[in-house]
């Protein structure tokens, strides 16, 4: 199944995964996601000593509203960066958004 690359927001995270917590779910056709992450990477767990960054997203699933579609979703995502300047998990932007 082909996917449309959802852009610049994904490239803001380094390839190694940051430690954190995320909550996500659906309410009808609406999709939501919220997370808080360590801005410091290490081999197992983030130390949280370089600050944190936060992610949030909201989306809508159009596939139930338009007949004949298996999948069609729109998403708006954001990163809010409260990390130190030398953080290793996220680039030094204060905020970044993607739709």
Describe what this molecule looks like in 3D:
The chain has 99 residues and is an all-beta fold. The protein has one domain (18-98). 0% of the residues lie in helices and 43% in strands. Strands 1-2-3-4-5 form a 5-stranded antiparallel β-sheet, with no helix packed on it. A hairpin with a 2-residue loop joins strand 1 and strand 2. Residues 1-6 have low confidence and may be disordered.
What secondary-structure arrangement, pairings included, does this model have?
Blueprint: E1 20-27, E2 30-38, E3 51-61, E4 73-83, E5 95-98
Antiparallel strand pairs: 1-2, 2-3, 3-4, 4-5
Short description:
The chain has 99 residues and is mainly β.
Biggest β-sheet description: 5 strands, antiparallel
- What is the string of helix and strand elements? EEEEE
Average pLDDT level: 79
Structural class: mainly beta
Report strand order across the widest sheet.
1-2-3-4-5
- What is the 3D shape? elongated
Number of individual domains: 1
Strand content bin:
35-45%
Helix count, per DSSP?
0
**Count of strand segments:** 5
Q: Span between N and C termini? A: 21 Å
Helical content class = under 10%
Features:
99 residues; mainly beta; 5-stranded antiparallel sheet; 5 strands; disordered N terminus
């Amino acid at each position: 199944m082909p996917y449309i690359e959802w852009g610049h927001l994904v490239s803001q995270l380094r390839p190694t995964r940051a430690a954190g917590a995320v909550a996500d779910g659906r309410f009808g056709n609406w999709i939501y996601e919220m997370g808080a992450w360590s801005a410091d990477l290490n081999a197992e767990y983030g130390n949280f000593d370089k600050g944190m960054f936060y992610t949030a997203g909201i989306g809508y699933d159009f596939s139930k509203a338009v007949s004949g579609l298996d999948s069609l979703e729109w998403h708006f995502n954001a990163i809010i960066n409260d990390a130190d300047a030398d953080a290793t998990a996220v680039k030094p932007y204060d905020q970044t958004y993607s739709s």
